[in-house]
Amino acid sequence: MSEHGGAQSDDEATFDASKYKSRKEKNEALKKWKAKQAKKQQQEEVIPRSVRITRIQIEQDSGKSNHDLEEDSTVVDLNRAGTALLEIVMEPDLRSPLEAGQVMRQLQHLLRHLDVCDGNMEEGSMRCDLNVSVRPTDLGEKADAETLHQALTSSTAAPFGERVEVKNMNSIRNMMRAAEYEARRQIALIEGEGGEVHRETRSFDASTGETKRMRSKEGAKDYRFFPEPDLPPLVFSEKLIEEISETMPELPDALKKRLCDQYGLTSYESSVLVNESGAAHYFESIAKENSRPSKVVVNWVLNELFGHLKTVNGDIVSSPVAASELGALIDLIQDGTISGKIAKDVLEVMFFENDAKKTPLQFVKEKGWKQIQDPEEIRTLCRVVLEDPKAKKNLEAYWKGKTQLFGFFIGQVMKRCGGRVHPELANSIMQEILDEHKQ
């Protein structure tokens, strides 16, 4: 895996320059989780896993050969030559395409959270090379993931098979597709054709979902490491490491836990906020003011605001609705000035039509959206609905026990006033009138 940085050389580089022996980290555990499908409660079950990091090394990218652009020649692309890279090398601790996808997402979120890079694989700012090998087990394909993981990591597991490297994957989804295909290809080669897997490098074709052979894989002795005179040894002092540690922002896992503990969010809600750049700060900026209910705030951020952002393919950092403005809108709901239904209309106008930067209250006043809270006015609306000849059959059915029609009556009240009536008052007053008629 590698990440683009700024160009470090004025001349083309015809080899990879790597700080191979200057290991920033070694054998550190990178946590990841297995997220099961969020059901009605939108909850996520967390199953801890870890993957060992062999090393993190600085590299300098070289030119790229392309053998497909011209039929009789190879084209060399030097656009990336001299570009600084950060390569993270991991131990073979992953046992399925799903696990590989999850650890890549976790790493992607971490790099974005720390502002190391944008992590956009489709743009090449984060790349992934995949190594796949297979080994036999006594379990069939129907074995659940946990049982399979335990079998493959036990001390009695068969040794690793020959590994194959796969390149050219521009998304996590394609990386998972490549892992799935390559594992099945190797199994078919061993079991079906009686062949053996050779160490090689293959390319993934996203259009067919298949891997294709590129070249035989070099052994470690063939990499030809030698000192780079333009790159002196990089030494990290303990003092520098301590200073960096003290200035590090709150890491994703710690932030998720704090959001759950402090605001009562579900693991699903906290994960979405943390994984979307700037969303956790946006949420907290609203929730910590005016004692706003955190569950109300997170609902408006994740469902309503994110819904509008999705329609314009935007992110929360570039949202036209500032945290203070959404907070002010939530305050209008909480103090009864407007209903939740009207608030959605206000948010839509603020998101798409607020060039003048008006406040939520200004929109409410201009459009006459203020909630009706006068009991007598609400009582009049309720009587008009019940006395309407069209409501006669429904009213009779209600008296005979079809009490679910109460919601229909309230809906008619809302319809007559454009949804501006205070729902709790409308419910209580409608019930009073129905009880009076019953007597």
Automatic annotation (TrEMBL):
GO biological process: translation
Ranges for domain Asn/Gln amidotransferase: 281-434
Pfam family, one: GatB_Yqey
Region (Disordered): 1-23
Gene3D superfamilies linked: 1.10.10.410, GatB domain, N-terminal subdomain
Keyword list, A-Z: ATP-binding, Ligase, Nucleotide-binding, Protein biosynthesis
PANTHER family on file: GLUTAMYL-TRNA GLN AMIDOTRANSFERASE SUBUNIT B MITOCHONDRIAL AND PROKARYOTIC PET112-RELATED, GLUTAMYL-TRNA(GLN) AMIDOTRANSFERASE SUBUNIT B, MITOCHONDRIAL
Protein name: Asn/Gln amidotransferase domain-containing protein
Organism per entry: Phytophthora oleae
